[in-house]
Design a protein that fits this description.
This protein is α+β, with helices and mostly antiparallel strands and 203 residues long. The protein has 5 helices and 4 strands; from the N terminus they run ααβααβββα. It is 77% helix and 10% strand. A hairpin with a 5-residue loop joins β3 and β4. The longest helix has 97 residues.
């Protein structure tokens, strides 16, 4: 009887241990599977974070490079515009200074005679600002006596700062030799030159 009881106890122990071991193995396997999944999920999440960080870094680098390039372009354009403006102002100032009474007293008669040599002087007018006309009227009337006899007129044009215009009274044709028109001609020539110089300097 004692032997049977002992055998029963031993079997219960063995069965219990086997069951416990099986349960433990299952729990360990389950825990390992969960741990593996957690690690895999964490790695996947870490890879996503790293990729997002790399993408964001690349985007920021490109944005920074684009901003630097744009700032450089803006700086060159601003500098070129400033140089062009200064040159235009200088051209305007020097052109205005060049129109002295002595120059105008020689230039106007020569231009008028060249104009009227190919056309009738009857409808032709010479336009100057008020102060220049007052200062030059006597000498111009003397130099253009023949043309004035044919109908040439000397008139005030308040829109002219310096220089003069010659034209037909109906406005069909005219020559603009005002300081503004001449300065524009010089500036139109200078601006592309300045742009070319600035472009070459920027490269």
């Amino acid at each position: 009887m004692d032997i049977q009881v002992n055998e029963l106890i031993d079997r219960i122990k063995k069965d219990g241990v086997a069951a416990a071991e099986k349960s433990a193995s299952e729990k360990i396997a389950e825990a390992e599977a969960k741990a593996s999944k957690i690690i895999a999920d964490a790695k996947e999440e870490a890879d996503k974070i790293i990729k997002t960080a790399k993408d964001e870094t690349a985007r920021m680098e490109k944005a920074s490079e684009d901003a630097i390039r744009q700032a450089s372009r803006n700086l060159v354009l601003s500098f070129r515009e400033s140089v062009t403006k200064e040159l235009s102002a200088l051209v305007s100032s020097e052109t205005e200074k060049a129109y002295s009474a002595d120059l105008l007293s020689k230039l106007i008669p020569e231009t008028v005679k060249a104009w009227t040599a190919k056309s009738d002087a009857a409808d032709v007018s010479v336009l100057l600002n008020e102060s220049d006309l007052a200062a030059l009227e006597s000498s111009l009337k003397s130099a253009l006596n023949a043309e004035i006899a044919k109908g040439l007129t000397l008139k005030v044009d308040k829109t002219i700062n310096k220089g003069f215009r010659i034209g037909i009274d109906n406005g069909a044709a005219f020559i603009d030799i005002s300081d503004e028109a001449v300065a524009e001609l010089f500036s139109a020539y200078l601006n592309p030159k300045v742009a070319s110089i600035m472009k070459n300097a920027a490269n």
